[in-house]
Amino acid sequence: MGSVEKLGLLKMDFLGLKTLTVIDNALHLIKDSLGVNLDISSIPMADLETYKLLCSTRTLGVFQLESSGMRDLLKKMKPDCFEDIIALLALYRPGPLESGMVDDYIKRKHGKLKERYELPELKNVLKETHGVILYQEQVMRIASILAGFSLGDADLLRRAMGKKKPEEMEAQREKFIAGAKGKNIDVKKATKVFDLMEKFAGYGFNKSHSTAYALVSYQTAFLKTHYPLQFFGALITADMDNTDKVIRYINDCRDMKIKVIPPEVNESMKDFTIAHDNLIFGLGAIKNVGSSAIDSIIEARKEKGNFSSLRELCENVDLRLVNKRVLESLIKSGACDSLNKNRAAMIEDLPSSIEMGQAKQRDHQLGQSSMFEVFEEEKDGGVNAGEIKDWSDRERLKHEKETIGFYISGHPLEQFTNELAWFTDSSSASILEDNTGNEVSIAGIPSKVLPKVTRKGDKMAIVNLEDLRGSIEVILWPEIYALTENILSDDEPILVQGSVDSDGNQPKVIAKKVCLLKEAKEHWQGKVHIRFRTPGLEKDTLVSIKEILGKYKGGNEAFLEFLFPNKKIRKLSVGENLKIKPCDEIIQEIEAVLGEDSIRFD
């Protein structure tokens, strides 16, 4: 690129953004599902609902505005126009963030700090950024207005400031001061302006670049605001291979009251689609189900209508493409539930269904038909579902995980609602978003355990812990791993107490204590908080709680929390003689006196 530039040719940088494909696919879904031909280049740029979404920081899936740091900046800035989004993207970089420039900008925007201009001529240049030199183009305009630089010379100044070469900067300074003198501008003022330009040049950003990105950010925010179903359909389709992202997006759908329908052989297309105001899972998200197999299923569906049984499916699809492996994945994922709710029975019946389907297809190719074919079509072939016991919840979820990459009809953690409320204070998503190195308590399924050996030769492990919101890595150092190696399986949820390590690309949890979630009450070591809400300070109530605590003595310190009408909370320790042991009985008895959620652990 340097040689091309020296020859005087135009140098271009083309970026292939996946987000552009997401926008395009969303527009197609809008047309297919709503009959609306939306021109994304003509959407209103001052849409109040879109800015309301940005200010609410519900920006998962919005280009460049997904990270926790960016959402924190959105919350502070409260953008209300397109220029704010341009500035936001230019400000969210290490230089401006570390220099205090971002806080200065936000205070000026909200009128908490007065805008200042060293010279009246600067107001027109810096008004849009509240007096802060933010863009490289502003440096060029200042040099042009104050010192008479040509646009070519101003560009050379911009580049010199970016490279910070002392001898080059000194030459530019002399030229700037001389030019300012020629325009009757005070030398001290001109020097101060040059110093400001030099200071901010290191933080300056190319506005045209930021504007192009801001446009894509606004467009995705607009689609999420006004066409959330279609937006999520396109977004999840683009990230079908990234399990963590799919889980996060599906959870965001649920938070926005969008129903996500599991894969369905009679409804689903290859990608995520819209039907009956719901988002339909795409068959392309199922492992071992390739594009050719999906095309065959969709083609058969168009010709014959919906399938009513597994055997009818096998008779009508191309079994060279939709083979046994594909059909097993469809059944295990739940995509064939409309044919038979008993997945175990369908797996049992699969070999004979394939055999009958192949025989029927051979007969049709030869122009033959069985004299009994009419009667066979009238009855629902297959084994009697009542004769075969269906899979347990655990087996069903395990097979879904195998074929889709995550649990879709439920989650192993759902049976531990109380334990999650009592003993956890974080989720994988909250840790990944707020990686401040806090102490955390998190529960999940150890889906992958990677044993390692330390330099000293001791065994340790890195565990991929999956919860209801995604997954996170947990580090088990040798001492902890030795105590917990035997309880790490992909079936049993565990409880991890530890600290967040923010070094590296993504935060990790360094485990300090690990136990099975179902045994959390037995192993828990921490504080127990019992909350009184008014009314509830009567003597009889206090006596009842004291009697309950006396029955379940253990090693955990207990605190009484009194919540007053002014929302103030007063905490009192019950003392050494009433340390308690968490158990179902104490929780039930305390909640019977004080109501639900009146006891918690940390």
What would you note in describing this structure?
The chain is α+β, with helices and mostly antiparallel strands. 48% of the residues lie in helices and 14% in strands. The chain is built from 27 helices and twelve strands. Strand 7 (494-501) and strand 8 (508-516) form a beta hairpin. Helix 26 packs antiparallel against helix 27 (584-594). It is globular, with a radius of gyration of 32 Å.
Q: Helices and strands in order, then pairings?
A:
Layout: H1 2-6, H2 18-34, H3 48-56, H4 68-77, H5 82-91, H6 94-99, H7 101-109, H8 123-126, H9 136-147, H10 151-163, H11 166-182, H12 187-201, H13 207-226, H14 228-238, H15 243-255, E1 260-261, E2 273-275, E3 278-280, H16 291-304, H17 310-316, H18 324-333, H19 343-365, H20 373-378, H21 393-404, H22 417-423, H23 428-433, E4 439-453, E5 459-467, E6 470-476, H24 478-484, E7 494-501, E8 508-516, H25 520-523, E9 527-533, H26 539-551, E10 553-563, E11 569-573, H27 584-594, E12 599-601
Q: Notable features of this structure?
A:
12 strands, 27 helices, 602 residues, alpha+beta, five-stranded mixed beta barrel
Task: Give a quick precis of the structure.
With 602 residues, the protein is of the alpha+beta class. It has 27 helices and 12 strands.
